[in-house]
C-alpha cells in the first residue's frame, strides 16, 4: 500500500536550526487557518510554503528517488517517451503531463523507465 506523505519548502524554521529555511521538508501535511505545516519524523512541525506542497506519487525513479507532485520527470520506454511534470488532478491518479498535453499514468510505469530531472519550483 502506498504511503501518503507530502513535501514542501520550509518558510518558518521556528525553534530549530536556520539551516532548514527554504529546504524541502517531508512528512504529514496539516492545514491550520491560512498556514500549512508538515510534521516530520524528527517530531517537529515545520511551516511550509503552500505553493510548493506536493504529494508523494507512490513510486520511485530508476535512482530510487521518490517522485512527488511537481517533479519534472523523464519517461522513456521501447515505445517512446516524454518529459513532463507530475500532476494530481481532483480524484485522479498522478500522471506525467508534457507541454503538448501528452500524458502517462505514473502508476503504470516501470521504475527503470522514470528519472526525476528536477521540479517545477526550482528548475
TrEMBL record:
<dbReference type="InterPro" id="IPR023385">
    <property type="entry name" value="YopX-like_C"/>
</dbReference>
<feature type="domain" description="YopX protein">
    <location>
        <begin position="43"/>
        <end position="122"/>
    </location>
</feature>
<protein>
    <submittedName>
        <fullName>YopX domain-containing protein</fullName>
    </submittedName>
</protein>
<dbReference type="Pfam" id="PF09643">
    <property type="entry name" value="YopX"/>
</dbReference>
<dbReference type="InterPro" id="IPR019096">
    <property type="entry name" value="YopX_protein"/>
</dbReference>
Amino acid at each position: 500500500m502506498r504511503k501518503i506523505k507530502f513535501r514542501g519548502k520550509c518558510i518558518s524554521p521556528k525553534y530549530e536550526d536556520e539551516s532548514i529555511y527554504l529546504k524541502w521538508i517531508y512528512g504529514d501535511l496539516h492545514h491550520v487557518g491560512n498556514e500549512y505545516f508538515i510534521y516530520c519524523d524528527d517530531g517537529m512541525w515545520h511551516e511550509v510554503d503552500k505553493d510548493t506542497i506536493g504529494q508523494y506519487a507512490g513510486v520511485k525513479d530508476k535512482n530510487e528517488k521518490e517522485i512527488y507532485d511537481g517533479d519534472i520527470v523523464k519517461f522513456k520506454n521501447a515505445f517512446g517517451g516524454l518529459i513532463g511534470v507530475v500532476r494530481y488532478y481532483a480524484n485522479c491518479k498522478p500522471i506525467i503531463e508534457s507541454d503538448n498535453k501528452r500524458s502517462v499514468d505514473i502508476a503504470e510505469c516501470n521504475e527503470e523507465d522514470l528519472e526525476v530531472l528536477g521540479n517545477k519550483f526550482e528548475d
